[in-house]
Specification:
By secondary structure, the protein is α/β, with parallel strands linked by helices. The chain is 38% helix and 15% strand. It is built from 8 helices and 10 strands. The strands form 3 sheets. The protein has a 4-stranded mixed sheet with strand order 2-1-3-8. A 4-stranded mixed sheet has the order 4-10-6-7. Strand 1, helix 1 (18-34) and strand 2 (39-42) form a beta-alpha-beta unit. Helix 6 (164-176) packs parallel to helix 7 (211-229). The longest helix has 19 residues, at 211-229.
Length: 248
């Protein structure tokens, strides 16, 4: 069987939040309608309340599609206009990471529900907050298999929330020698219960966050510092390949 030219990977493990399930259904339907290629839900191989390991979910998807030349990695709470995704795929034929948006729009809970059930166009709704170009780099990445090989895959030391986005962006830039490229346009972040502490980097979040999640964020921050000290492709690959999930 001929492998697909593009596989769209959505990292997902159900931890019981109905809002996140609603977001997943909307995002999967949106990605399927784009016609880019098969939409592949990829678990991290863990169970229960363990912090989610997005990197493990991504690596498992790549392992499951060894001959696919292009991947779109899109989180289960993000909507990106179809033309921007197609443009990003064309750009990613060259080495380096491509982010298929410049403007990251945080939507309210009410607007997110309206978008998910088809009552409103998510790209015309007024967001609660906006992050400009370069501040949001991780929720959706378009990468060729060659770029993934250059960096050595996703670093599974990162788990839970925080810092992995920036670390991996630095890794892809160092490993390929090509800075991150962006496609002009918005992306919409659908509301869900936040996974960071009150008063954290975004001055918001859940009232209570499990100790394991908080510990994961602290560990991510420390590991990000190691990435910033890496200045060669070899040093980056030592970080990314140091641990791999046994659940493949």
């Amino acid at each position: 069987m001929t492998p697909p030219a593009v596989v769209v990977v959505v990292p997902w493990r159900d931890k019981g939040d109905p809002g996140r399930r609603r977001n997943l259904r909307a995002v999967a339907a949106h990605l399927y309608a784009a016609g880019l290629g098969p939409v592949y839900l990829s678990s991290d191989g863990r169970r229960g309340d363990a912090p989610f390991n997005r990197s493990a979910a991504y690596n498992r998807a790549v392992t499951a599609h060894p001959d696919t030349p292009m991947f779109v990695f899109c989180e289960a709470d993000l909507l990106v206009p179809h033309p921007q995704l197609r443009a990003a795929i064309q750009m990613a034929d060259r080495p380096g990471m491509v982010v298929p948006f410049e403007e990251y729009r945080y939507m309210s809970q009410l607007h997110s529900i309206a978008a998910c059930v088809g009552l409103a166009d998510p790209f015309t709704l007024k967001p609660q907050r906006v992050m400009g170009r370069g501040r949001a780099v991780g929720p959706c990445n378009v990468l060729s298999a060659g770029t993934l090989a250059a960096v050595g895959g996703w670093d599974e030391h990162f788990e839970g929330w925080g810092w992995d986005d920036r670390a991996m962006e630095h890794g892809f830039t160092i490993a390929t020698g090509v800075p991150t490229r962006f496609v002009p346009g918005p992306a919409v972040h659908l509301y869900h219960t936040p996974g960071w502490r009150v008063g954290g980097p975004f001055h918001g979040g859940a009232d209570t966050v499990p100790d394991a999640e908080q510990a994961a964020t602290r560990a991510n921050r420390d590991r990000y510092a190691r990435y910033l000290r890496a200045s060669t492709a070899q040093q980056i690959r030592r970080l990314t390949t140091a641990a791999r999930s046994v659940c493949v």
